[in-house]
Amino acid sequence: LRIHPLQYLMVGLALAIFFLLLISLSEHITFWKAYLVSAVACIGLQAVYLAHVLGHWKRGLGFAAMLTLLYGALYGLLVSENNALLMGSLLLFVILALAMWVTRRVDWYALGADLK
Hints:
The chain is mainly alpha-helical. It has helices at about 5-25, 30-55, 55-80, 85-100, 110-115.
């Protein structure tokens, strides 16, 4: 599917606004409630938007499910103050290992040549 860079920008801004909402709401309500409201609002916004951009509601819900897992993992890291660095490092290592495993047979030079 072709996605315009402006659409990528809007999704990226929605991801960034999550943190702004979280910080501003947590000044007025407890952290877990602020996190929940911010996450639900941003995930819902992106699910609806991406369902239209990607041409099907299942694709929007798939992205929303992945984002829910990501925000869930991030919440777990944030509330475990003593182990946050260790858990975050291990999570990033696992994500990098998975990305390397999935793309191990991709010929990046051939991929770039197809674009010319």
